[in-house]
Structure formats: C-alpha cells, structure tokens
Description:
The structure is a single chain. By secondary structure, the chain is of the alpha/beta class. Helices cover 40% and strands 14% of the residues. A hairpin with a 2-residue loop joins strand 6 and strand 7.
Amino acid sequence: MDYQQQINVPMSLPDITDKEREAVAKVMATNYLSMGPYVKSFEEAFCNFTGAKHAVAVNSGTAGLHLCVLSAGWHDGDRVITTPFSFVSSTNVLLYERITPIFVDAEPLTGNIDPVQLKTAVTDLMTSETAAAKWLPPKGDHGGELKGILAVDVFGQPADYDGIREAAEPYNLPIIEDSCEALGAMYKGRHAGLLGDMGVFAFYPNKQITTAEGGLVVTNDDKAAAMVRSLRNQGRAEGDTWLEHTYLGYNYRMDEMSAALGTVQMSRIEELIRNRQKVANWYREELADIDAIELPHTAASTTRDSWFVYVIRLKEAERRSEVSAKLKALGIPVRPYFSPIHLQPYMQERFGYEPGRFPVTEDLGRRGLAIPFSGKMTREQVAAVGSALRQIFG
Ligand SMILES: Cc1ncc(COP(=O)(O)O)c(C=O)c1O
C-alpha cells in the first residue's frame, strides 16, 4: 500500500466538538424539539455576525431561496436573470414557480456571473423583444417581463455586486443573493448575504458551519422578512392562530436540534473560517509549482474569501477523467464541480440548450475538479494530495 492510500483523505468533514454534541443532547432532554428557543438564538447569532436586521432560519438553502423568490413577488411567466455556473438549486427555485431563468455566463477568473454581460442582458431584456431574443432559451417558455436577478457567490467568494447593482438599479430590479456557499465572505468589507436585497446561507455538513440540513435568509427589508417568516410556517401571518393561514405557505421550519447545533457552530464561526483559510493556504503552497493546473483566484473585491470547496482547474480538460481515476486509485476522492445547469438533462429537454451556448461556464465545468477540503484537513493530508498530483503530472 502506498503513502496516499494509507492517508485516506475524506472529500469533506464537518467540524463538530463536544460542545455541539452536548447542545443537541440538551434539546433532546426537553419537550421543545421544534419552534423552541434555539431557532431564535440561531437567528440572533446571524444578525450579530452579519449585521443583518432580520434572519429567518429554514430547513435547507433551497427552501430559503424558494421563499426569497416568493417574497420578491416573482411568479409564473416572469423572467429572472441567473447564472448557469452554480448548484442546480439557484435555477430550480425559479422553475418551481414557472419563472423562466435567463442565463448570463460566468466570468472566467472567479466563476461568478459576468457583470458586463449582465448589464447588456438587462438593457436588452428591458428595451426590446428583438434585443432580448439572444438571451432567451432556444425553446420552451420564454416568459414575459424581466423581474429581477438571482446571483450566486460561487465557491465561497462574492460575485461583483457593484456591477450587479449597476445593471439592476436603473430598472429597480430586486437582487436575491445565493450565498449558500459563502457564509463569512466579504465583498469590499461587507458581508456576503447582505449584498443584494435578500441573501441565503446553507448548512449541509460540507459548509462553513453545519446544522446537518438547514438554511437561513438574511435581509434588512422588514416586509420581506415578515413574508419569509410567514411562508416558512405554513403561511401563518403574525397574529394568525395555528389553524389560520393568511398565505399559501410551506413547512420549511428548522428544528431545534439543528438550531442548537448551528448556534454552537456560530459561536465558533471565526475559528472555522480561519481553519479553512489555513488549509487553502497550504494547498496554494503545495500546488503552486504544478504547471498542469490552475489554482483558485481571489478577486481584489473579495476582502475575505470564505473557503467552501477547493476547486483546481486542469489546463487540459481532456485529462480530467484519467486524473480523477488516478487520484481515486491513490485514495483521494475528487468531484467535477460544477456541472453546467443548462446542460443538465431536464434543462436540455425543457429549454433545448446545446453545448456551446455558455462557453465560460462550459469551460470551467470541463476543467474544474474539487479536491478534498475541510477545515480539519492536516498538513500531511494536503501534502498527500500535492504529491499525488505531482506524481500524476510528472
Ligand atoms: C450555490 C448553492 N445554492 C444552493 C444550495 C442549496 O442548499 P441546500 O442543499 O441546503 O438546499 C447549495 C448547496 O450546496 C449551493 O451550493
């Protein structure tokens, strides 16, 4: 058995201590497994950390995004601009409401939505159907009016919100920020999640903090917060009784065990982000001399990167399967990341997308490889990944 196989590097790991275990056990010993005090303390921790006026915990990032879409008032027949270089949820929440997603390609360095193309798209879509035509999907429902922008902070780095705002403001388009991968990141000194009108975080176990499953909406908008709060709780508005439902709502509530776990995780947030930064720094040192790969780029506007995944790009896309197989054989799991949304089978079927439509997204999709990453990785594990890559690339 060789060195890499012995080291057995996991793809990702949550960072859980006895404090988290004790907090969850304490909830289990009470009668408040749902709608108790921990959800409130978890939400308060987010207001304190990000400076948001409102924080509303939900049971997944996808649920949070869905509630933001509903609370923005976007609906059946609307158009919303988003990015094809993301996890599918950011587009799916539009499809849930029969909104037509209009894709704008990514910019190559960070993989975030390209603000220059975005501005052209908004202008074209707002001025004439002839100009709008080139942004519409090849087939399927083309929707009607452009109602807003759903941007994504990819891999823990905020998109360019000055550019996004410049595109949105002339038409008062609301911006939803999918910050599911970027808790703790900063754009020009401001917290991710608060860079649009509403922002969403997610807490699956590979994220910066975990609640097992969970998500949370932040906003400074009183009305939006009240709507999200109501819709997560079966449409009960403030003052409604248990069986009164002002709106058509959902059960998107977070339970108390998750909130207890999350509250302790939030008390450790700076430590957790620091540990992830340390591992990312080790990777940079370890991989800098491998010519066949490109390392992640941090934009000047990112005043704090909050590492979610570590995605390298192979210079030669055609080698990715061979490299992945060799790494796996050496005990190192990897994932292609992301797989372009417009080329997912259901999207091709519904909207007729073919390869070639969004070249930057497709290029990143072909060359990107997420390598093992968590704040618990050791220097030896990072070195093992480095030596495996060096061995493969000679
Ligand atoms: C960019 C992005 N958006 C949305 C989500 C959805 O979060 P969840 O899995 O909690 O529903 C994720 C989760 O991985 C994500 O990475």
